[in-house]
Write a structure and sequence with these properties.
With 82 residues, this protein is mostly helical. It has one domain. The protein contains 3 helices and no strands.
């Protein structure tokens, strides 16, 4: 079980890295389009977590926490990179 949690964290890192790349490519898109893109990536991350962990609550908690950490880190990076 513990190894699967680490594997989910690794997959979430790949997913959020690819989201950052896609977000960078679509910098001229509207906020609504970016919100749809974020929800799509969150759904894929949740599906991968369910397949590896087999517990929906833990998968949802890991997906939400990795999303919050990613978005918080992205916001901090944009604040301090100016």
């Amino acid at each position: 079980m513990k190894q699967n949690l680490y594997l989910v964290l690794i997959f979430h890192s790949f997913i959020w890295s690819s989201f950052l790349f896609v977000d960078w490519l679509s910098e001229k898109d509207s906020l609504f389009a970016k919100a749809i893109l974020l929800s799509l990536f969150m759904y894929v991350a949740y599906l991968i977590a369910i397949q590896l962990i087999k517990f929906r609550k833990i998968a949802a908690l890991m997906t939400i926490s990795s999303t919050v950490l990613f978005l918080g880190g992205k916001q901090l990076f944009t604040i301090f990179s100016i």
